[in-house]
Write a structure and sequence with these properties.
With 326 residues, this protein is of the alpha+beta class. It contains ten helices and 14 strands. The strands form two sheets. Strands 5, 6, 7, 8, 9, 10, 11, 12, 13 and 14 form a ten-stranded antiparallel β-sheet that branches. A four-stranded parallel β-sheet has the order 2-1-3-4, sandwiched between helices. A hairpin with a 2-residue loop joins strand 13 and strand 14.
Length: 326
């Protein structure tokens, strides 16, 4: 048995990671193979090189971008993916219950955790010039407040204060955020028109700092969850804040986990939906983010879901997880 270690040296150097790998790896396993990522391709070449070595476990140490690339590449195999979160958001790790604060714990789970099959989303976008591109996503994609906030985040500030840099960016973006008319179709249903600030399409629902945005989302239910954020004036923003606050109360999380709450209700400021395939056409181009990375502007989106696309190592208590973490 042998593990392949793909690591982003900007986020976590080999010298820091190696002792934890040595401690957690079973004694009978062969020496692991190490592959450093290259910023030019977000780690895709390193992941492919690791998988070409006929490894039994792929461990990825890096941020959301590196994890997303690894998830996309590994779907054609049944090699388990172990995640060692080393970024700012660490979104997939948070949604799977992987410890984002303790390196040793995360490495231990990568070797000794339970295997869990999860879905993977695929987004196709059409740019204003007509060019199309495809992007895998494990957590969430969208346009509006989240994409603009990510685009305007100061990278130097993010290195110093982490996720708090997004708060600074949100404060600068929210007052100038324009609404856009969008035509949306879920699966084979009818097309509806809405005026929104933000549209989110998620495979799971927890974002930076553990905040639940899509409370009905489950990473292995074969469905995408959609949110149309459309507050009108100060009252609308207050309603939106109220929805999010209630969804993040411990009592609400417990009730939902125990099955005492139904599906999230749609309101004037926030509309919800679920589908296996989602189409959206924007009347004006907007920046689009994929798992925390802005990938360009789009005038049309198409999102689909790949069910049970990959196997991920998770803490044993999260092997059959239901509902948002408490």
């Amino acid at each position: 048995m042998r593990a392949g270690i793909v690591y982003n040296p900007v986020k976590l150097d080999r010298a820091t990671l190696a002792p934890h790998i040595e401690t957690a790896q079973p004694l009978e396993w062969s020496e692991p193979l190490w592959f450093a990522t290259d910023a030019d391709d977000a780690g895709r070449a390193a992941v492919r090189a690791a998988l070409a070595e006929d490894i039994d476990l792929l461990i990825v140490a890096g941020g959301d971008g590196t994890v997303r690339v690894a998830a996309d590449e590994i779907t054609s195999t049944r090699v388990p993916l172990g995640i060692v979160p080393a970024g700012t958001g660490n979104l997939l790790a948070r949604n799977l219950g992987i410890d984002v604060t303790n390196l040793a714990n995360a490495v231990a789970v990568a070797f000794d955790g339970a295997d869990r099959e999860i879905d993977l989303g695929e987004l196709e976008i059409q740019a204003p010039d007509g060019k199309r591109s495809k992007h895998a996503f494990a957590v969430m994609v969208g346009f509006g407040l989240d994409a603009e906030m990510i685009d305007k985040t100061d990278e130097d500030l993010k290195k110093k204060v982490g996720w708090l840099a997004y708060v600074d960016a949100a404060g600068r973006v929210i007052s100038s955020l324009d609404k856009v008319r969008v035509h949306v179709r879920l699966d084979g249903g009818r097309t509806t028109r809405s005026v929104v600030n933000t549209m989110l399409i998620g495979n799971c629902g927890t974002v930076t700092n553990g905040i639940i945005i899509l409370p009905d989302a489950a990473i292995d239910d074969g469905l995408l969850d959609i949110a149309l954020v459309r507050p009108r004036g100060t009252r609308g923003w207050m309603q939106l804040a109220g929805y999010i606050a209630r969804n993040n109360l411990i009592v609400t999380k417990l009730l939902r986990r125990r099955g005492h709450l139904g599906r999230q209700r749609t309101g004037a400021a926030l509309g919800y939906g679920q589908a296996k395939e989602t189409h959206a056409r924007l009347e004006e181009p907007r920046a689009v983010q994929v798992d925390g990375d802005v990938v360009g502007e789009a005038v049309a989106l198409r999102a689909t879901i790949r069910e049970d696309a990959l196997v991920v190592r998770v803490p044993r208590e999260h092997a059959r997880d239901e509902g948002p973490a408490v």
